[in-house]
Task: inverse folding
C-alpha cells in the first residue's frame, strides 16, 4: 500500500506515519508536503498512490483549493484539528474525516472503510466511484457502541448505564466492572470483547489488565522508563500503569 501525506505540522505528520507503519507494516509512505503549492506541483505529475491523507489547513491556505486546480483520482482521508470543515470534506467525496490528534481506533475505522472500497471496486477506486457507496460506508463508521450492560449480581440482573462504569479490570482470569459508586461486579466477558463494545472516545485499554473510562482518571503521574502511572477514582487496589508503547496513544486520547 502506497500513501501520500500532505500535512504542515511536523508532529502530526510524524504521529500519522508512526500509526500507519504500526497498522500496515509493509506500507510505503511519501511526504509530508506542507503547502498547497507543493501539493499541486507534486500531484500534477504523480497520482500513483492508493490513499491520500490530506490536512485541511496547510501553511499557505486550505487544501480545498487543490481541487480547484487539479482533478484528483485518489481516495482521500482528510485530517484537521477542527470539525467545522466536515461537511465540505464529505462534499469532496472523501472516505473519511479524522480529527487531530488522530486516535488509533479512529484511524483503524478509516482504513477499514478504505479496504471495503478496495474490495468492492478493486485497487485504488476512483473518486467518482467512491461517492456511490459513501452512504453505505457511513454505517460502517457509526459503530453501535453499547450504552448499557445487563450485569448479574447475586440472584438478580442489574442494568448499568455506560456512564456509571469507572473501569473494567482482569484479575486471575476473571473480569470485574467497577462502578462510580465503588461497587465491584463480575463481568462474564473478556476485556478484548468489552473493548470492542465500548466507545473508544470514552474508554482506553491502558494495558492487558485495565480498560478505563476517561471520567475515572483523577491524575496522571510520570513513571520510570517513559511509562505513566494513573490515579483512579474509585481507587484501584492494583497499580495502573500505562506502558511506554501505549503512553503516546494514551496522551493523545486524553488530549482529544
Result:
Amino acid at each position: 500500500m502506497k500513501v501520500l501525506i500532505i500535512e504542515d505540522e511536523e508532529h502530526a505528520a510524524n504521529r500519522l506515519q508512526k500509526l500507519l507503519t504500526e497498522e500496515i507494516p509493509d506500507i510505503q509512505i511519501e511526504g509530508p508536503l506542507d503547502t498547497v503549492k507543493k501539493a499541486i506541483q507534486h500531484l500534477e505529475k504523480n497520482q500513483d498512490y492508493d490513499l491520500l491523507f490530506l490536512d485541511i489547513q496547510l501553511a499557505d491556505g486550505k487544501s480545498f483549493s487543490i481541487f480547484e486546480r487539479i482533478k484528483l483520482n485518489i481516495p482521500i482521508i482528510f485530517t484537521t484539528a477542527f470539525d467545522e470543515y466536515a461537511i465540505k470534506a464529505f462534499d469532496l467525496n472523501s472516505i473519511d474525516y479524522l480529527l487531530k490528534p488522530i486516535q488509533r481506533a479512529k484511524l483503524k475505522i478509516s482504513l477499514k472503510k478504505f479496504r471495503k472500497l478496495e474490495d468492492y471496486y478493486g485497487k485504488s477506486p476512483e473518486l467518482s466511484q467512491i461517492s456511490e457507496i459513501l452512504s453505505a460506508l457511513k454505517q460502517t463508521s457509526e459503530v453501535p457502541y453499547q450504552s448499557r450492560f445487563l450485569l448479574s449480581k447475586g440472584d438478580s440482573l442489574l442494568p448499568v448505564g455506560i456512564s456509571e462504569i469507572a473501569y473494567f479490570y482482569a484479575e486471575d482470569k476473571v473480569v470485574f466492572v467497577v462502578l462510580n459508586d465503588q461497587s465491584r461486579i463480575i463481568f462474564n466477558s473478556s476485556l478484548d470483547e468489552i473493548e470492542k463494545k465500548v466507545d473508544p472516545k470514552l474508554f482506553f485499554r491502558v494495558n492487558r489488565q485495565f480498560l478505563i473510562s476517561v471520567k475515572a482518571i483523577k491524575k496522571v503521574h510520570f513513571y520510570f522508563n517513559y511509562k505513566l502511572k494513573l490515579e483512579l477514582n474509585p481507587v484501584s487496589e492494583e497499580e495502573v500503569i500505562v506502558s511506554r508503547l501505549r503512553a503516546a496513544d494514551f496522551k493523545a486520547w486524553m488530549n482529544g
Summary: The chain has a mean pLDDT of 85. Residues 148-255 form a domain with the OB fold (Dihydrolipoamide Acetyltransferase, E2P) fold (CATH 2.40.50.1020).
